[in-house]
Amino acid sequence: MSSVIRRVITIVLSCAMVIAVASCGASGDEPGAGTTTTKQGEQTTADDGDNGDNEKTKITFQTWNPDEPAFQKLLEDMDGKLSDVEVELVFIPYSDHISKLKVDLASGEGPDVFGLQTGASMQEFSEFLTDLDPLAKEAWGDDWTSNYVDFAMEQIKGKLDSYYGLPLGMSYAGMIWANDFYFNKYDLEMPKSYDDLKKVSADLRAEGEYPLASGAKDDWINIDMFMNIVNDINPEIVYQAIEGESSWQDEDIITAFSLWQSLFTDGIYQDGALGVNMYNDTTDIFEKEASVPMITNGCWVIGNYAKETEEFVKIWSDDNNDHNFNVISMDWNNDGTPAPVTAAVDVVVVQNKNSKNPEAAWKFMEYMGTDGADILVNDLLFYFPAKANASFTGSLSEEGTANYNKLMEISANVAGYREMSYPELKQAFADQLKALATEDATPEQAAEAIQAVSDTTTR
Fold first, then answer.
1. Interval 21-65: pLDDT, tens
2. Are 339 and 231 in contact (CB under 8 A)?
3. What is the DSSP letter of 279?
4. Could you give the CA distance from residue 139 to residue 119 in angstroms, rounded to a whole number?
5. For the packed helices 251-265 and 443-455, what is the interaxial angle rounded to 10 degrees?
6. Number of helices (H) and strands (E), helices first, in the chain?
7. Contact 346, 168 (CB under 8 A)
């Protein structure tokens, strides 16, 4: 398992910094002039730059997404637009990001601006967030929410009383990505249904290869995949259970729990899946090494086709004839119809209400919610559009275009939201998925345990 490293890079929004960054590699491993990139627990420092009239207001932006190379692209565009703001990007894996926020915000500190997901995390951190509605109305008018797709704004508001974040882009979850190389090598059919997946996983194991790889240590990927399974069986029942309108002990949910458990007990997931994270333990072996046949993940994998670093180009470009990739929408209940996916705002940028520099923080958020989001969606393909009438305008390889078009078809079949709004219920749900994976609970016991928490959940 690869070690988890927190990369911290200070990004100074000045012309001199743009030139310095442009001379460095795009991998994010080499900082620009006046910065240091340090490992977890160390501090990052930057030159103060000019004083006097050129003095900048410093703010911090902490997130797991977008990554450093993408943020360097934003840097070039921000130069001149945010000439009086200096941004320190704290890039950190998602689970560590949330843990750090809990500690820092509770002490009255924390970053000026940070990323969250919709649903439970927005609810959990709501007391630390700035109400953005008055700021956005002043900047863009009373109907500012019409700048974004309705689903995105509905998810951002959720159970809250106002809008506390801006969307960077949309994500769609529940897919499997497969590398043709292994299926051609062993003359195997690409799986379309659960039965296909079970057979091909056994065949791959017999050849000494990984079956379906997943970083099941992370709750989010487990929830994504379970939601895909249960929505194929009944696309309404789990949402009714989340909202307290039906029981978690419904027969269809128990059937879905059984299917989820079989991913582990039938050897469909790789051995030790519960001990590894998705990022970067599992994603690296599929995306950078191309050493496993299949992986669970979402629509955002498509962004690999747009990455310019050598390690991605050599694997994901059309020049590589060995490895070709396919996105699969799985038919879990073997009825001949692929499962509907779930949707969410991939990253919501929010402002710490205890920020010591709220005006500078809002200037940065204005940029990220408009021009920054355009670059991330339209140019870098980090997300699917959350802004109204936005679309990818870059160029993709023939294979990338085919998978993008497939994802557009898949994203039209949405069962519902990806992130629930109740932190305690979500945690109970996640815990029971792991208990099923280790056979510490039967499907019936898992359903009973979640229902007990649901019964005490305030909605």
1. 222 222 232 222 222 222 223 333 334 434 345 689 999 999 999
2. yes
3. I
4. 26
5. 130
6. 18, 11
7. yes
